[in-house]
Amino acid sequence: MLKMNIFLSVLVAASWLVVPTALAATVSNSGAETITVTVTENGDRRDVDIAAGAVVNLCPAGCFISFPSGDILALKGGERVVVENGVGRIAQ
After folding, report:
1. Is 83:39 a contact under the CB 8 Å cutoff?
2. By C-alpha distance, which of 31, 89, 33, 34 is closest to 65?
3. How many domains would you assign to the chain?
């Protein structure tokens, strides 16, 4: 019984680690060059480089992303964003 309780405790703890990634927005760079986007999350700003053809997970709890075009998207998490020619759009 003790082994079962330990197993269940580990399983529950591990599920908390997986949930934020599952809800994160994915941002893909369909361009031929690396781009830099600015992510503002909980009042903190950081620049994120996204290589050509790469996909990154961002904003598990929502954020604002500023793109090279100057456009800004508000994300809740879970969206799929594509960046083309420096312009970000939510993919359907």
Report:
1. no
2. 89
3. 1
Kindly list the distances between the CA atom of residue 74 and the CA atoms of 1, 7, 16, 42, in Å, as whole numbers in the listed order: 47, 39, 24, 12
**Paired tokens of 54:** 């790469």
What confidence tens digit (pLDDT) does each residue in 6-55 have?
A: 554 544 444 444 444 458 999 999 999 999 999 999 999 999 999 999 99
| CA 82 and chain centroid, separation | 12
State pTM to two decimals: 0.73
Smallest CA-to-CA distance from 73 within 40, 45, 43, 51 is with: 40
Instruction: Look up the domain containing 62 and give its range.
Output: 2-90
Which residue spans within 14-62 are E strands per DSSP? 25-29, 35-41, 44-50, 55-58
